């Protein structure tokens, strides 16, 4: 069974640009979450989607947005990039059959560098 | 609100020695607790999870953790460290809000 696939793995942008990251969950998983990982702040929750609906959102500015498609694939977008957005962005998928937080399966991440 | 505190950002042990990584949590609801491991340039991999079935949880690669409600702790242990255990370990708590709250992580170094 294929794991969670994130693209691109590495990318470099300049301040003010925007970026779109893509995530393909494990087949059959309908929940997709996104986390930002930085050395200073650690792992921070961005948002979670289930069946194309955002069910929870972390404490990030409106420049960070996401969406989920009918095939459960997800994208996140960061507009007007700032230096502080440099991070590893991790996508995770889950069966999420109940209301509780289930086991998350993580992709290898997209490492964004903002110059 | 939920939170996780991992005591010790860096733990160093000798190969064959006991590994003990500490995690304390705060949760207003019965928690779901997890330990994840991250190797360099990779995502997170689940080691084990506690979902109230048993207080002693066994995971992969010989790791286990014990849930102690009175101490609000979920420490990770392994009797004998191996060089391949060198990685960063994250404790996380989940509830009914579709997200995990992670600790800051503990970097485990294993010395030959």
SSE blueprint:
The complex is a heterodimer of chains A (115) and B (112).
Chain A: E1 5-7, E2 10-13, E3 19-24, E4 31-38, E5 42-50, E6 53-57, E7 64-68, E8 74-78, E9 87-94, E10 105-106, E11 110-114
Parallel strand pairs in A: 2-11
Antiparallel strand pairs in A: 1-3, 3-8, 4-5, 4-9, 5-6, 7-8, 9-10, 9-11
Chain B: E1 3-7, E2 10-14, E3 19-26, E4 32-38, E5 44-50, E6 56-58, E7 64-68, E8 73-78, E9 87-94, E10 100-102, E11 106-111
Parallel strand pairs in B: 2-11
Antiparallel strand pairs in B: 1-3, 3-8, 4-5, 4-9, 6-7, 7-8, 9-10, 9-11
Textual characterization of the structure:
- The complex is a heterodimer of chains A (115) and B (112).
- By secondary structure, chain A is an all-beta fold.
- In chain A, 0% of the residues lie in helices and 52% in strands.
- Chain A has no helices and 11 strands.
- In chain A, the strands form 2 sheets. In chain A, strands 2, 4, 5, 6, 9, 10 and 11 form a 7-stranded mixed sheet that branches.
- Chain A is globular and about 40 Å long.
- With 112 residues, chain B is an all-beta fold.
- Chain B has strands at 3-7, 10-14, 19-26, 32-38, 44-50, 56-58, 64-68, 73-78, 87-94, 100-102, 106-111.
- In chain B, strands 2, 4, 5, 9, 10 and 11 form a 6-stranded mixed sheet that branches. A 5-stranded antiparallel sheet of chain B has the order 1-3-8-7-6, with no helix packed on it.
- The mean pLDDT of chain B is 92.
